[in-house]
Amino acid sequence: MKTLIVDDERLARKELINLLKPFQQIEIVGEATDVEDAQEQIAKLKPELIFLDIQMPGKTGFDLLESLDAVPKVIFTTAYDEFALKAFEVNALDYLLKPIQPERLEEAINKLKVEETPPTAEIEKRTLGKEDQVFVKDGDKCWFVKLADVRLFESDGNYIKVYFGGNKPMIHKSLNALDERLDDRTFFRASRKHIINLGWVENIDTWFNGGLLVQLRGGEKIEVSRRQASRFKEKMSL
Question: 129-236 architecture in CATH?
Fold first, then answer.
């Protein structure tokens, strides 16, 4: 598993590298000292796992996750236990308190699931499919969300409202830019304001002017414009 270590302290990175040596499934492909460095390394190396410090000069580990379109598996490493609750709120793979104990590291590694690595060409495309997870931060609340669980993206000015579970947090992204990244086998641009997850469609009715009214399993009703209706019918094999 291609692994990146993100920590501003050189000795902390060195110690973690030494602790990881016994784990043959872990391949350390790089180190990063801050958020900007990590962003570059992630774009270049495409790690499957990140050991991530939370408190770093300038921006935090949460800021890094918020900046990524798709988020790899994450194990937090930090000396600040006050962040523990927040880390668990975002459903990280695990949380390791510094100094890292070998037995706790082993527990974290054992939580990793061996998954089939997608072909390199698919990784290069960076298309976001239902198996990808994204990091969503809204105020003090943070989540790791699997795209399969996101039923709707709704444009709201310069923000996007993300619908999953009972949550509707706002993220500062463009719906057009997101639409270009999402796998069109799973997500459909219903209108100027909405992208829906086809797997969450519960009911479809005819609507005004040749459009359609789609009801999602979450209860939301979304109008599919006349322009998009024929494409939607093809997607849903109507």
Answer: Beta Barrel (2.40)
